[in-house]
Write a structure and sequence with these properties.
The complex is a heterodimer of chains A (about 130) and B (about 230). With about 130 residues, chain A is mostly helical. Helix content of chain A is about 75%, strand content about 0%. In chain A, helix 1 (about 20-50) runs parallel beside helix 4. Chain B has 2 domains: about 1-100, Roll (Ubiquitin-like (UB roll)), CATH 3.10.20.30; about 100-230, Fumarate Reductase Iron-sulfur Protein, Chain B, domain 2, CATH 1.10.1060.10. Chain B is built from 8 helices and 7 strands, in the order ββαβββββααααααα. In chain B, a hairpin with a 2-residue loop joins strand 6 (about 95) and strand 7 (about 100). In chain B, helix 2 packs parallel to helix 5 (about 165-175). Chain B is elongated. Classes of the chains: A mainly alpha (about 130), B alpha+beta (about 230). Chains A and B meet through helix 1 and helix 3 of A and helix 7 and helix 8 of B.
């Protein structure tokens, strides 16, 4: 019997695709960008409130001192660092600097590892 | 060896499934394509394209253990088992590992992949200096297997508008040809937010090209030519 097929299927399960390191740096750039867009207004508001008075600063400090909030802040530090580093990498590659495959692989690894280290340092500092 | 292969028959299946196979490769089976052809003698319903079996025709491009490549150039030695074979990502599946490449070739045609020269032809061929000919190296070798375009996230999300790495590499092959006189028109066609500028320099194309070419480098050169043109 002939099955009724609406449209030809496509294989595009991203979890079953083995991505090169450059693709991981790139998707990280996207994800960190979205996180920054969503969080920056709240962070700017928090900064504004913290500058109002000593009492409001203390309230905010208590708010972010819980461990899970520190992890959240470390995530945002990762987002800012990864977005900055991967963005500089993209800008340099756009003008032909480091756009060879081996250099691009190295710079992708460097951006990913450096952002992770900075985020870990931030987390350790907040949790300490 | 163990294999897990994407199966889809439009006449009997509503959706694709994975089928497991056990196969004992024989002496002389060196490449993945050899194993697939042996498998075909056991299960003749398994469908895949192949022709030259030596990386020249570009027919047997597929997703091998999560990465695109040519079955005929992939050694059996060192392949992680089960070897998972799926069709090229993002392309409509006709049957099993055979994909519909209509759109891919439409993009290729759109960049006018032939020499355009409106001057009177000389009596013999149009000559090039060795330096001019050298510029075509790394460009003319493309076999249009689609490993690059079907591994490009920008092509997955905009397959109808973004020309893709294969088409852009071919476009640059004619832009850099000293005998071609349509460079300005070619660049004007490519100067588009989708056709060229959907490329985000992810470089998946260069990572998987079975011929060792660099479509991302060609795209970079096109962008630079556009900057020179506008300044």
């Amino acid at each position: 019997m002939r099955a009724r097929v609406e449209a030809a299927p496509k294989f595009l399960n991203l979890l079953q695709i083995r991505f090169p390191i450059g693709a991981i740096a790139s998707i990280g750039h996207r994800i960190s960008g979205v996180l920054l867009v969503l969080s920056l207004p709240l962070l700017a508001l928090a900064l504004d409130r913290s500058l109002h008075s000593e009492a409001e600063f203390a309230v905010l400090r208590d708010l972010v001192s819980a461990p899970w909030r520190a992890v959240l802040l470390a995530l945002l530090v990762w987002a800012a660092t990864h977005h900055l580093l991967a963005g500089i990498r993209h800008l340099l590659m756009d003008v032909g600097i480091g756009s060879g495959l081996s250099q691009a692989r190295t710079s992708a690894w460097a951006a990913i590892v450096a952002a992770a280290i900075v985020a870990l340092i931030a987390a350790a500092r907040w949790l300490a | 060896m163990r294999l897990s292969i994407y199966r889809f028959n439009p006449e009997t299946d509503l959706k694709p499934r994975m089928q497991d196979y056990e196969l004992a490769p024989e002496a002389g089976d060196k490449k993945l394509l050899d194993a697939l052809m042996r498998l075909k003698t056991i299960d003749d319903s398994l469908s895949f394209r192949r022709s030259c079996r030596e990386g020249v025709c570009g027919s047997d491009a597929m997703n091998i253990n999560g990465r695109n490549g040519l079955a005929c150039l992939t050694p059996l030695v060192g392949l992680k088992e089960p070897v998972v074979l799926r069709p090229l990502p993002g392309f409509p599946v006709i049957r099993d590992l055979i994909v519909d490449m209509t759109q891919f070739f439409a993009h290729y045609h759109s960049i006018k992949p032939y020499l355009i020269n409106d001057t009177v032809p000389p009596e013999r061929e149009r000559l090039q200096s060795p330096a001019e000919r050298e510029k075509l190296n790394g460009l003319y070798e493309c076999i249009l297997c689609a490993c690059c375009s079907s591994f490009c996230p920008s092509f997955w999300w905009n397959p109808d508008k973004f020309i893709g790495p294969a088409g852009l590499l071919q476009a640059y092959r004619f832009i850099s040809d000293s005998r071609d006189t349509a460079t300005a028109e070619r660049l004007a066609y490519l100067d588009d937010v989708y056709r060229l500028f959907r490329c985000r320099t992810i470089m998946n194309c260069t990572e998987v090209c079975p011929k060792g070419l660099s479509p991302s480098h060609a795209i970079e050169r096109i962008r630079q030519a556009l900057v020179r043109e506008s300044s």
